[in-house]
Design a protein that fits this description.
Structural class: alpha+beta
Order of helices and strands: EEEEEHEEEHEH
Largest sheet: 7 strands, mixed
Oligomer: single chain
């Protein structure tokens, strides 16, 4: 397990413990969405566990970032996405959040 306060590289990639950590099931984007995820993490400690090869499940305050990202329209659910992540993406699309045209 990797634990620490990471910089956010994009909505699917963190830098933690000197390693690049990819969020499982997330197709990342940069720009405004990455800044929003960075604000969400907000200097809090993140705990990451490997789940699929090089992919990780990362939590901050009990929230799985792989679900938070598609729920807020910060990226698409990708290969390895769970049903909860797919539901989160559908909800974000319907609400036109983030990359789906919101704000």
């Amino acid at each position: 397990m990797l634990v620490g306060v990471p910089p956010v590289l994009d909505t699917g990639t963190l830098r933690l413990g000197g390693r690049t950590v990819r969020l499982a099931g997330v197709e990342p984007v940069g720009g405004e969405q990455a800044r929003a995820l960075s604000a969400h993490v907000g200097g809090r400690e993140v705990a990451c566990e490997p789940v699929l090869g090089e992919a990780y499940r990362c939590e901050v305050d009990g929230w799985d970032l792989s679900e938070v990202v598609p729920f807020n329209g910060g990226g698409r659910a990708g290969p390895g996405a769970t049903p909860a992540m797919l539901d989160a993406e559908r909800a974000a699309r319907a609400a036109r959040k983030g990359i789906w045209g919101g704000r």
